[in-house]
Specification:
Helix content: 55-70%
Oligomer: single chain
Order of helices and strands: HHHHEEEEEHEHH
Largest sheet: 2 strands, antiparallel
Radius of gyration: 46 Å
């Protein structure tokens, strides 16, 4: 039971690690959203300045400037939203770490430049085999099964006769007891008189007197020792013993079912995590290609906007699509990083990003 509880404690630590990793990735994701939103806003500010000059020169109507300013306000609001998300993400992580306050706490940003170049080489069965040996929830269920088997052995032991031997030692003391001792003389007690008037006494006997009876002498004089050997045969409590054995057998079956269920749930979780990781890397690569094409398309759209071939609405529609694709790429990237870390975690590897 102790070993099982220690495994449960280890599982709680693992859960905390995964929660911290998730909160850490949320900060990274929010940071990049803020950076992208800031870049989009900076471009829009340049467009506001350019459009304002063209309106002042009479080359563009005031409506174009209002549309650009509206886009700037929208992007400024989006930046504020992302910044608030980043602040909340930092607060969540610092609370998990039980820091006194957020203060100047900042995370380190790892190098994710090689994301997408790697492949998931392991298969589900390999990951599951490693997980059976490494994950504490499996060990906890196995120890609980052993504990229930030991309880069954204890219950069956109650059917056996018991041979026992016992011994006891005792003594006593009283502060009112006195010790009798010989004085060295003799004494006779009168018991009557004769017809002639002579006193009749008992035969002379040694004279005695009373004195204190010390503790050590009383304990020594009053000591007693017993030894007992016995044989106990369980006859009348047989039904109770058999009931306990039956309950213990049920306990073993429940523990076995619990272990089997834990293994099945683990296998399903690994299957799901593996499928999620494969899907996320595919989504990341597809989104990366889409973003590359979108950026080239936006450059062309931007050139057409500068020469007046498209409207402001068309320009910012393309710009918003580009921003959305960049956001989707970030989400796919960090989703894959976390799913990949989960697979490594199932294999008993250190949780690293």
């Amino acid at each position: 039971n102790l070993l099982s509880s220690l495994k449960d404690l280890e599982k709680l630590r693992n859960d905390i690690s995964l929660n911290v990793a998730s909160a850490y990735l949320q900060i990274l994701f929010s940071m990049e959203l803020v950076q992208n939103a800031q870049s989009q806003l900076d471009v829009t500010k340049l467009q506001v300045d350019r459009t304002s000059k063209l309106v002042d020169a009479g080359s563009l109507p005031m409506g174009n400037l209002l549309e650009v300013q509206s886009q700037q306000a929208s992007e400024d609001l989006q930046l504020t939203t992302y910044q608030n998300q980043l602040d909340i993400a930092y607060l969540t992580l610092t609370q998990m770490l039980e820091l006194d306050s957020v203060g100047n706490f900042k995370i380190e940003v790892p190098d994710f430049s090689k994301i997408g170049d790697e492949e998931i080489l392991s298969n589900v069965n390999e990951i599951y085999a490693d997980a059976l040996n490494n994950l504490p929830q499996i060990g906890s269920a196995e120890y609980k099964l052993k504990s229930s088997e030991a309880a069954l052995a204890v219950a069956r032991g109650a059917m056996s006769p018991r041979l026992y031997i016992s011994t006891s030692y005792g003594s006593g003391y009283s502060d009112v007891r006195k010790k009798t001792y010989l004085t060295g003389g003799t004494i006779s007690y009168p018991i009557g008189v004769t017809a002639s008037g002579e006193t009749v006494t008992t035969l002379p006997e040694p004279a005695t007197a009373l004195t204190d009876y010390p503790l050590n002498m009383q304990l020594r004089d009053n000591k007693s020792t017993t030894v007992m050997v016995g044989l106990s045969i369980p006859i009348f409590n047989g039904w109770q013993v058999r009931s306990n054995i039956s309950n213990s057998k049920i306990g073993v079956l429940n523990s076995q079912y619990s272990l089997d269920n834990t293994r099945k749930l683990l296998y399903k979780d690994i299957q799901q995590a593996y499928a999620d990781a494969v899907a996320s890397i595919k989504k990341y690569k597809s989104t990366e290609k889409a973003l590359s094409s979108m950026r080239e398309s936006f450059k062309y759209t931007e050139q057409k906007y500068e020469v007046g071939m498209i409207t402001t609405v068309d320009y910012y529609t393309a710009k918003n699509q580009l921003a959305m694709t960049e956001s989707n790429l970030l989400q796919a990237k960090y989703d894959y990083i976390f799913k990949r870390s989960i697979l490594d975690f199932y294999r008993g590897r250190q949780l690293k990003l």
